[in-house]
Amino acid sequence: MAASLPASIAYQIGPISGSELIADRRGSQVFRVQRPDSAALAVKVSRTNPDPGAPNPDYARLLAAREAAVLAHGPAPAGYLHAAGATREATWIAVAWIDAPSLHRTFASARDADTPEGRRTALIAAAAAAGAVARLHTSGWIHRDLQSAHLLCGPTGASLVDFAFAQPPTGVRIEPVVPYRGGLVHLDAPELARALLDTGPAADVTMDPPAEVFSLAAVIRTCWTGVWMYDYPEDATMTARLSTIAASDRRPLSTQRPWAWPRLEALLTAGTEPEASARPTANEFADALTHAI
Protein backbone atom coordinates (compact mmCIF):
# COMPACT_ATOMS: atom_id res chain seq x y z
CA MET A 1 0.00 0.00 0.00
CA ALA A 2 1.91 3.03 -1.26
CA ALA A 3 -0.68 5.78 -0.84
CA SER A 4 0.04 8.60 1.60
CA LEU A 5 -2.25 10.81 3.64
CA PRO A 6 -3.84 13.51 1.44
CA ALA A 7 -2.00 16.82 1.80
CA SER A 8 -5.22 18.72 2.56
CA ILE A 9 -5.75 16.56 5.65
CA ALA A 10 -2.11 16.42 6.70
CA TYR A 11 -2.09 20.22 6.75
CA GLN A 12 -4.98 20.31 9.21
CA ILE A 13 -3.46 17.69 11.52
CA GLY A 14 -0.20 19.56 11.89
CA PRO A 15 3.46 18.62 11.37
CA ILE A 16 3.94 14.99 10.39
CA SER A 17 7.07 13.10 9.40
CA GLY A 18 5.43 10.33 7.39
CA SER A 19 2.32 8.28 6.76
CA GLU A 20 1.52 4.71 5.76
CA LEU A 21 -1.73 3.31 4.41
CA ILE A 22 -2.61 0.25 6.49
CA ALA A 23 -6.25 -0.44 5.53
CA ASP A 24 -8.50 0.39 2.60
CA ARG A 25 -12.04 -0.96 2.50
CA ARG A 26 -15.66 0.05 2.19
CA GLY A 27 -14.94 3.66 1.33
CA SER A 28 -12.55 4.30 4.22
CA GLN A 29 -8.78 4.33 4.43
CA VAL A 30 -6.75 4.16 7.63
CA PHE A 31 -3.26 5.66 7.79
CA ARG A 32 -0.59 5.33 10.43
CA VAL A 33 0.79 8.84 10.72
CA GLN A 34 4.08 9.61 12.42
CA ARG A 35 4.55 13.01 14.07
CA PRO A 36 7.90 14.69 14.72
CA ASP A 37 7.43 14.26 18.48
CA SER A 38 7.38 10.46 17.91
CA ALA A 39 3.70 10.15 18.79
CA ALA A 40 1.79 8.19 16.15
CA LEU A 41 -1.80 8.72 15.05
CA ALA A 42 -4.38 6.55 13.35
CA VAL A 43 -6.14 8.68 10.74
CA LYS A 44 -9.36 7.40 9.19
CA VAL A 45 -10.31 9.03 5.89
CA SER A 46 -13.85 8.34 4.63
CA ARG A 47 -15.02 9.35 1.15
CA THR A 48 -18.28 9.51 -0.75
CA ASN A 49 -19.08 6.24 -2.52
CA PRO A 50 -18.74 6.85 -6.28
CA ASP A 51 -20.99 3.88 -7.12
CA PRO A 52 -24.18 5.34 -8.65
CA GLY A 53 -26.15 2.41 -7.20
CA ALA A 54 -25.10 3.03 -3.60
CA PRO A 55 -28.20 3.51 -1.38
CA ASN A 56 -26.42 6.20 0.68
CA PRO A 57 -23.22 7.44 -1.01
CA ASP A 58 -22.23 9.50 2.05
CA TYR A 59 -22.68 6.71 4.61
CA ALA A 60 -18.95 6.31 5.33
CA ARG A 61 -18.56 10.07 5.74
CA LEU A 62 -21.52 10.21 8.11
CA LEU A 63 -20.02 7.44 10.24
CA ALA A 64 -16.69 9.26 10.49
CA ALA A 65 -18.46 12.46 11.52
CA ARG A 66 -20.52 10.54 14.07
CA GLU A 67 -17.42 8.91 15.58
CA ALA A 68 -15.82 12.32 15.99
CA ALA A 69 -18.96 13.57 17.74
CA VAL A 70 -19.05 10.48 19.97
CA LEU A 71 -15.42 10.89 21.02
CA ALA A 72 -16.00 14.57 21.78
CA HIS A 73 -18.40 13.39 24.50
CA GLY A 74 -15.71 11.30 26.16
CA PRO A 75 -16.31 7.51 26.07
CA ALA A 76 -12.59 7.02 25.25
CA PRO A 77 -9.63 8.04 27.45
CA ALA A 78 -8.59 11.69 27.50
CA GLY A 79 -6.25 12.52 24.65
CA TYR A 80 -7.46 9.68 22.42
CA LEU A 81 -9.15 12.05 19.96
CA HIS A 82 -6.51 14.26 18.38
CA ALA A 83 -8.47 16.09 15.68
CA ALA A 84 -11.29 15.69 13.16
CA GLY A 85 -12.57 17.58 10.16
CA ALA A 86 -13.78 17.46 6.60
CA THR A 87 -12.61 18.47 3.15
CA ARG A 88 -14.54 18.52 -0.10
CA GLU A 89 -13.37 14.98 -0.80
CA ALA A 90 -13.52 13.30 2.61
CA THR A 91 -14.40 13.35 6.29
CA TRP A 92 -11.52 12.38 8.57
CA ILE A 93 -10.73 11.65 12.19
CA ALA A 94 -7.32 11.37 13.86
CA VAL A 95 -6.89 9.40 17.09
CA ALA A 96 -3.98 8.13 19.14
CA TRP A 97 -2.26 5.10 17.62
CA ILE A 98 -2.57 2.07 19.93
CA ASP A 99 0.34 -0.27 19.32
CA ALA A 100 -1.22 -3.56 20.42
CA PRO A 101 -2.48 -6.74 18.74
CA SER A 102 -6.15 -7.61 18.34
CA LEU A 103 -7.81 -10.05 20.70
CA HIS A 104 -7.83 -12.62 17.87
CA ARG A 105 -4.05 -12.41 17.49
CA THR A 106 -3.61 -12.68 21.25
CA PHE A 107 -5.54 -15.96 21.21
CA ALA A 108 -3.30 -17.45 18.49
CA SER A 109 -1.27 -19.61 20.87
CA ALA A 110 -4.44 -20.96 22.50
CA ARG A 111 -5.80 -21.96 19.09
CA ASP A 112 -2.59 -23.60 17.91
CA ALA A 113 -1.69 -25.72 20.94
CA ASP A 114 -3.03 -26.46 24.40
CA THR A 115 -0.34 -25.18 26.76
CA PRO A 116 -0.53 -23.56 30.21
CA GLU A 117 1.17 -20.44 28.84
CA GLY A 118 -1.25 -20.19 25.90
CA ARG A 119 -4.27 -20.56 28.19
CA ARG A 120 -2.97 -17.95 30.61
CA THR A 121 -2.18 -15.46 27.83
CA ALA A 122 -5.65 -15.92 26.34
CA LEU A 123 -7.45 -15.57 29.68
CA ILE A 124 -5.50 -12.43 30.64
CA ALA A 125 -6.42 -10.83 27.32
CA ALA A 126 -10.08 -11.92 27.55
CA ALA A 127 -10.38 -10.60 31.10
CA ALA A 128 -8.81 -7.28 30.08
CA ALA A 129 -11.20 -6.98 27.12
CA ALA A 130 -14.19 -7.69 29.36
CA GLY A 131 -12.90 -5.14 31.85
CA ALA A 132 -12.72 -2.48 29.15
CA VAL A 133 -16.33 -3.20 28.15
CA ALA A 134 -17.42 -3.16 31.80
CA ARG A 135 -15.87 0.27 32.33
CA LEU A 136 -17.64 1.55 29.24
CA HIS A 137 -20.99 0.25 30.50
CA THR A 138 -20.39 1.81 33.92
CA SER A 139 -20.01 5.18 32.20
CA GLY A 140 -23.39 4.72 30.51
CA TRP A 141 -22.05 4.00 27.01
CA ILE A 142 -22.46 0.90 24.85
CA HIS A 143 -19.98 0.22 22.06
CA ARG A 144 -22.45 -1.62 19.75
CA ASP A 145 -19.75 -2.90 17.37
CA LEU A 146 -17.63 -5.29 19.40
CA GLN A 147 -15.37 -7.47 17.27
CA SER A 148 -11.83 -8.70 17.61
CA ALA A 149 -10.34 -5.85 15.56
CA HIS A 150 -11.93 -3.33 17.94
CA LEU A 151 -10.42 -4.92 21.06
CA LEU A 152 -6.67 -4.31 21.25
CA CYS A 153 -4.73 -6.10 23.98
CA GLY A 154 -1.36 -4.83 25.16
CA PRO A 155 0.87 -5.27 28.22
CA THR A 156 -1.04 -2.62 30.15
CA GLY A 157 -4.52 -3.96 29.39
CA ALA A 158 -7.14 -3.75 26.66
CA SER A 159 -8.38 -0.77 24.65
CA LEU A 160 -11.59 -0.31 22.72
CA VAL A 161 -11.40 1.41 19.33
CA ASP A 162 -13.81 2.40 16.53
CA PHE A 163 -16.66 4.17 18.32
CA ALA A 164 -18.68 5.11 15.24
CA PHE A 165 -21.76 3.17 16.39
CA ALA A 166 -21.43 3.85 20.13
CA GLN A 167 -24.71 4.41 21.96
CA PRO A 168 -24.57 7.32 24.44
CA PRO A 169 -26.05 7.52 27.92
CA THR A 170 -29.68 8.55 28.24
CA GLY A 171 -30.15 12.24 27.46
CA VAL A 172 -27.08 12.61 25.24
CA ARG A 173 -27.80 13.16 21.54
CA ILE A 174 -25.14 12.58 18.92
CA GLU A 175 -25.18 14.38 15.58
CA PRO A 176 -25.22 13.41 12.78
CA VAL A 177 -27.86 10.75 13.35
CA VAL A 178 -26.90 7.47 11.67
CA PRO A 179 -29.40 4.61 12.16
CA TYR A 180 -27.84 1.60 13.88
CA ARG A 181 -28.64 -1.72 12.22
CA GLY A 182 -26.47 -4.10 14.20
CA GLY A 183 -22.76 -4.76 14.31
CA LEU A 184 -20.90 -7.67 12.74
CA VAL A 185 -23.87 -9.98 12.23
CA HIS A 186 -22.06 -13.19 13.29
CA LEU A 187 -21.69 -11.71 16.79
CA ASP A 188 -25.19 -10.29 17.29
CA ALA A 189 -27.40 -11.40 20.18
CA PRO A 190 -30.73 -13.14 19.44
CA GLU A 191 -32.81 -10.26 20.78
CA LEU A 192 -30.95 -7.78 18.58
CA ALA A 193 -31.55 -10.00 15.54
CA ARG A 194 -35.27 -10.07 16.34
CA ALA A 195 -35.34 -6.28 16.61
CA LEU A 196 -33.63 -5.97 13.23
CA LEU A 197 -36.10 -8.36 11.64
CA ASP A 198 -39.05 -6.45 13.12
CA THR A 199 -37.97 -2.99 11.92
CA GLY A 200 -37.28 -1.29 8.62
CA PRO A 201 -33.82 -0.40 7.24
CA ALA A 202 -34.10 3.23 8.38
CA ALA A 203 -34.99 2.42 12.00
CA ASP A 204 -32.40 3.04 14.69
CA VAL A 205 -32.18 -0.05 16.91
CA THR A 206 -30.99 0.42 20.47
CA MET A 207 -28.84 -2.05 22.39
CA ASP A 208 -28.77 -2.84 26.08
CA PRO A 209 -25.81 -4.15 28.11
CA PRO A 210 -26.88 -7.85 28.06
CA ALA A 211 -26.84 -7.83 24.24
CA GLU A 212 -23.31 -6.42 24.30
CA VAL A 213 -22.20 -9.05 26.82
CA PHE A 214 -23.45 -11.65 24.34
CA SER A 215 -21.35 -10.05 21.58
CA LEU A 216 -18.32 -9.95 23.86
CA ALA A 217 -18.62 -13.64 24.73
CA ALA A 218 -19.20 -14.45 21.06
CA VAL A 219 -16.04 -12.53 20.14
CA ILE A 220 -13.99 -14.47 22.68
CA ARG A 221 -15.51 -17.75 21.50
CA THR A 222 -14.61 -16.95 17.90
CA CYS A 223 -11.08 -15.91 18.88
CA TRP A 224 -10.59 -19.31 20.51
CA THR A 225 -12.31 -21.54 17.94
CA GLY A 226 -11.44 -19.53 14.82
CA VAL A 227 -14.96 -19.93 13.37
CA TRP A 228 -18.36 -18.24 13.68
CA MET A 229 -20.82 -19.78 16.10
CA TYR A 230 -24.05 -19.71 14.09
CA ASP A 231 -25.19 -22.50 11.81
CA TYR A 232 -25.92 -20.91 8.43
CA PRO A 233 -24.22 -21.32 5.05
CA GLU A 234 -21.68 -18.76 3.87
CA ASP A 235 -23.98 -17.58 1.07
CA ALA A 236 -27.01 -17.09 3.34
CA THR A 237 -28.91 -13.81 2.91
CA MET A 238 -28.90 -11.28 5.72
CA THR A 239 -32.54 -12.11 6.51
CA ALA A 240 -31.70 -15.82 6.70
CA ARG A 241 -28.76 -15.12 8.98
CA LEU A 242 -30.81 -12.92 11.28
CA SER A 243 -33.54 -15.57 11.43
CA THR A 244 -30.98 -18.20 12.42
CA ILE A 245 -29.55 -15.91 15.10
CA ALA A 246 -32.98 -14.97 16.42
CA ALA A 247 -33.73 -18.68 16.87
CA SER A 248 -30.35 -19.26 18.59
CA ASP A 249 -29.57 -21.96 16.04
CA ARG A 250 -25.88 -22.24 16.75
CA ARG A 251 -23.19 -24.86 16.40
CA PRO A 252 -22.38 -26.59 19.73
CA LEU A 253 -19.15 -25.31 21.20
CA SER A 254 -18.04 -28.92 21.72
CA THR A 255 -17.92 -29.36 17.91
CA GLN A 256 -15.86 -26.22 17.32
CA ARG A 257 -13.40 -25.99 20.20
CA PRO A 258 -9.74 -26.84 19.50
CA TRP A 259 -9.78 -28.99 22.68
CA ALA A 260 -11.70 -29.30 25.93
CA TRP A 261 -11.32 -26.26 28.20
CA PRO A 262 -14.21 -26.70 30.68
CA ARG A 263 -13.66 -23.49 32.64
CA LEU A 264 -13.61 -21.20 29.61
CA GLU A 265 -16.42 -23.16 27.94
CA ALA A 266 -18.67 -22.63 30.97
CA LEU A 267 -18.02 -18.87 30.92
CA LEU A 268 -18.67 -18.60 27.19
CA THR A 269 -21.88 -20.59 27.53
CA ALA A 270 -23.07 -18.26 30.29
CA GLY A 271 -22.19 -15.18 28.26
CA THR A 272 -24.07 -16.40 25.19
CA GLU A 273 -27.24 -17.63 26.93
CA PRO A 274 -30.22 -17.14 24.57
CA GLU A 275 -32.16 -15.40 27.35
CA ALA A 276 -30.69 -11.99 28.09
CA SER A 277 -31.65 -12.13 31.79
CA ALA A 278 -29.53 -15.28 32.24
CA ARG A 279 -26.28 -13.63 31.15
CA PRO A 280 -23.77 -12.09 33.55
CA THR A 281 -23.09 -8.37 33.50
CA ALA A 282 -19.87 -7.21 31.89
CA ASN A 283 -18.41 -6.68 35.38
CA GLU A 284 -19.38 -10.19 36.45
CA PHE A 285 -18.01 -11.64 33.22
CA ALA A 286 -14.71 -9.79 33.66
CA ASP A 287 -14.42 -10.97 37.28
CA ALA A 288 -15.11 -14.59 36.31
CA LEU A 289 -12.49 -14.49 33.57
CA THR A 290 -9.99 -12.93 35.99
CA HIS A 291 -10.61 -15.67 38.57
CA ALA A 292 -10.07 -18.30 35.86
CA ILE A 293 -6.53 -17.11 35.12
Automatic annotation (TrEMBL):
GO MF term list: ATP binding; protein kinase activity
Alphabetical list of PROSITE patterns matching this protein: PROTEIN_KINASE_DOM
Boundaries of every Protein kinase domain copy: 16-293
InterPro entries: Kinase-like_dom_sf, Prot_kinase_dom
Protein name: Protein kinase domain-containing protein
Protein's organism: Longispora fulva
Phylogenetic placement of the source organism: Bacteria, Bacillati, Actinomycetota, Actinomycetes, Micromonosporales
